[in-house]
Each structure stands twice: as C-alpha cells, then as structure tokens.
C-alpha cells in the first residue's frame, strides 16, 4: 500500500527474525564494541535491532495484503483489570470515569494510534484516539508519537482538546534516506497544519527521525556512526532537522518549540547531536540480554554513559530523554520468550516498573515508557515479543500490573 518501503513509524525495539543473520551481525557488533563491557551489551542490543530493521524493510515490500485483524483478538491471558477503555459521556469526552488503578506515575509514554500507518491503510479513528487519551492522561502528562502520517498529530491534539486533559505531545516525523525528503516534507506539512489549527499549547517538541541513522548505517554496512560514510546519511537527517527548525521560526509562534531527533542509543553522530535541541534514545535492557532485576540499573547506566554524558560535553547541550524503555510480557513463539536474561512475562514487567519508574522520577531521568498498548500489527508482521510491550492489552484492559505509587514530575 505504501510507496515508502520502510515507512513504519514504530520499529524502535525489535527482535531477530532471521537467527542466522542475527548471529553474524551480533558477532560483528560485539567485536566493534568489545572495548568496554557495557559497549558489548549495547552492541548486542543494537545488532538485534539492526537485523530486524532490515527485516522490516524486506517485509514491507510484501506486506500489502497483511491485515492487522487477521489473528483476531490480540489480548493475552494476563488481563487483570476490567478497564477496557473508559466510560465516557458520548457528548462530552472530557467527562470520563477515572480508573482508581491508574495515576500519573510516568514521565511520558510511547504511543502509536492503532492503525496509524500508511501501509495498514490509515484506519486510525478520532474516537479510538480519544479513548486512548482518556486512559493515557491518567498515567502521564506527556506522550511521544513516531510519525505524522494518517493525520495522527491532528487526531491526538483534537483528542486532548476534547478531553480537556493536561497533556503535552512530542510529535514525530519518520523520515527516510532515499526519497529525496518526500516522507519528511509530507509529515512536516501535516504538523504545520496541526500547529496552525491547534496552536502550540500542547506541543512539547518536534522529533525529526526515528532510527534514521541506525537504518542508514545498517543498510550501508557502516560500522562507525561518526565516520565520513555515515556523515553522508547524517547530512540528510540534519537537513531535515534544520528545515523543521526553519519552519518553526517562520511560523513565528508564541512559544519556542524544540526540534529533536530519536534513534537507538548508540546511533547519535556528534554532528546530529549538535544540530538537535533534544534527543530521544531507545534503551532496551531486554535486547542487552539482562535479567529483569538487572534491567533498570542497566538502563540507567547505559543512558548516562552513552547519551547524557556525551550530550553535556557539547556546546548546545541537547536535552536527552529515554525514547523507549520497557519489558515485554509475552512472545508469540516459544523460542523468543527469553532473550538470554529473564522471560517475557507480566511479573518481569512488574519488576522493571518497580525498579525503574520511581527511581527515574526521583533522579530526574526523562523517559517515555515503552509502551502504552500492545500493538497487534507488530505481532502480525514480526511475531516474537514485538507486539507485546504494552502496559495495556490491545483491548485497552490493563495487564495484571500495579502502577508504581510515586507521581512523576
Ligand atoms: C458525565 O457523564 C455521566 C454519564 O454519561 C452523566 O450522568 C453526568 O451527568 C455527566 N456529568 C456532567 C457534569 O455532564
Ligand atoms: C484530521 O483530524 C482532525 C481531527 O480529528 C480533523 O478535524 C480533520 O478533518 C482531519 N483531516 C483529515 C484530512 O482527515
């Protein structure tokens, strides 16, 4: 359906589909990263992500007929609550019932409206986005999107307006390297429209790029993200970041909207960091083969050493956020149910929630938890743990987890 082969907006975390290839890439990245133990772990996680990114691209060209509903209900057996969306006055979405199991513990949440992908036909509806915002606003004040296609920016801003909740959106643009900026420009214009309709009040930033450099260097088999070869790709990304900054300037807005970039943790070239106001970094303990109990400390360490410290050394000091972190609750096949640490399971998600959320809040670590809902399209397309990272099931019922009791800043 899409002309943009690699145009999915949400491939942040990924797992191997082709075990052989994964292994060879893994060893390659292990060698590259072997200087420091932590780098090794990072590299493994990255290598796996890389492999799937490639698979994603391959699959994209043949996925025109996949349907996100072919496997029926995506809900798993871990349903512990009867939330199931939110009871709401049909004429007034701002009048909705709060779930006593939820409160604003999270700094931010990673979210893609269901169906908001060109290749899946843009089946996202304002009604379902309103329900999602009603739920999400009970957990956090911030949400990040991955792309702007399918009118998702306007839908989310409209939903925030109608529900009258206090939420800030980090809108996103998913750009690609080989289309002469077409995907970038298309989404930029959608965001521009949304800003002129809804204003700046609920916009926290414009994120240009999602794993752009990860995809670029993987496609070209470039090992060093700061090399001259990688810089050719970085220049494409930087041009889009600069264009977005120019757009913001030209709009003469009532408040400064920062323009950032999002990528896998180890894929921020220095030149890109120097061009961005903020960076969103994917930091996944699961892909680094940690246990659930080691996961939170691993994430804090990796983020500090790989992203926060380097950013602080730059003149522009880009504000770094964790773009994605979480723990999967199940796998669609047995062989991916454990990545070398602990199982994908609800109790292990609970361990990660308990170890990560309140400490991050306390330490001032800014993060978008990955993620709000299970995503059926990912399960259909990639299998394994890919579709099962939600706090909520696909049917909008809360999994059998207890939201940590702290409140996010
Ligand atoms: C809110 O919605 C409920 C249920 O639809 C309704 O009974 C109630 O009157 C509404 N409250 C207000 C203030 O509109
Ligand atoms: C985009 O979404 C907004 C909010 O729901 C709606 O008002 C607008 O008509 C939509 N535009 C298109 C082209 O679908």
From TrEMBL:
Residues 55-71, 78-88 have a biased composition (Low complexity). GO terms for cellular component: cell surface; extracellular region; fungal-type cell wall; plasma membrane. Its EC number is 3.2.1.39. Keywords: Carbohydrate metabolism, Cell membrane, Cell wall, Cell wall biogenesis/degradation, Glycoprotein, Hydrolase, Membrane, Polysaccharide degradation, Secreted, Signal, Transmembrane, Transmembrane helix. The chain crosses the membrane at residues 29-52. Residues 55-99 are annotated as: Disordered. GO terms for biological process: cell wall organization; polysaccharide catabolic process. It is a single-pass type II membrane protein. It comes from the Eukaryota. It catalyses: Hydrolysis of (1->3)-beta-D-glucosidic linkages in (1->3)-beta-D-glucans. GO terms for molecular function: glucan endo-1,3-beta-D-glucosidase activity. It is found in: Cell membrane; Secreted, Cell wall. InterPro entries: Beta-glucan_modifiers, GH, Glyco_hydro_17. Belongs to the glycosyl hydrolase 17 family. Glucanases play a role in cell expansion during growth, in cell-cell fusion during mating, and in spore release during sporulation. This enzyme may be involved in beta-glucan degradation. Active on laminarin and lichenan. This is glucan endo-1,3-beta-D-glucosidase. It comes from Ephemerocybe angulata.
